[in-house]
Amino acid sequence: MVRYLRERAAKAGLANVVAVHGEATDPKLPERAHVILRVDVLHHIEDRGAFFTTLAGQLALGGRIVVVDFEPDAPEDGPGPPRKHRLAVDTVVHDAAAAGLRARSTVSDTLPYQYVLQLER
């Protein structure tokens, strides 16, 4: 996926998009970021509070973290992880609050199975 994103950004001439293969304990960002996008990965992170703390430390002044993840009540036979692994927006907001982040906005009617949550310091 990282290679695909790099190629797609290059093809589109988006020099300000950097795809990075980070880890749960280290996002491996090359510099402070204005936007950190996390898509369908939070259910893989064991200590989300610590993860958000690390991400928050990588934000530039005024930066934000955008989380796209599956709605807990999305159809079980649709795409995404099993329901038991899906995280409600309230759970993500709670985990992010431990890192000093707060919800900026939530959109749940744009994507058929997922929500988009923006977090800021």
Instruction: Look at the structure and name the CATH superfamily.
Output: Vaccinia Virus protein VP39
Helical coverage, percent range? 10-25%
Poorly predicted ranges (pLDDT <50, ≥5 residues)?
none
Computed CA radius of gyration, to the nearest angstrom: 14 Å
CATH class descriptor name: Alpha Beta
Largest β-sheet summary: 4 strands, mixed
CATH-level-2 architecture:
3-Layer(aba) Sandwich
Give the strand tally: 4
> How would you describe the shape?
globular
Domains counted in the coordinates: how many? 1
- In whole angstroms, the N-to-C terminal distance is 28 Å
- List the secondary-structure elements in sequence, H or E: HEHEHEE
Task: Output the strand order for the largest sheet.
Answer: 1-2-4-3
Number of helices: 3
Strand content: 25-35%
Short description:
With 121 residues, this protein is of the alpha+beta class. It has helices at residues 2-11, 48-57, 89-97, and strands at residues 33-39, 59-70, 102-107, 114-120. Helices cover 24% and strands 26% of the residues.
